[in-house]
Amino acid sequence: MAIIVNLDVMLAKRKMSLTELSEKVDITIANLSVLKKNRAKAIRFSTLEAICKVLDCQPGDLLEYSAED
Question: What is the pTM of this model?
Answer without folding.
Answer: 0.90
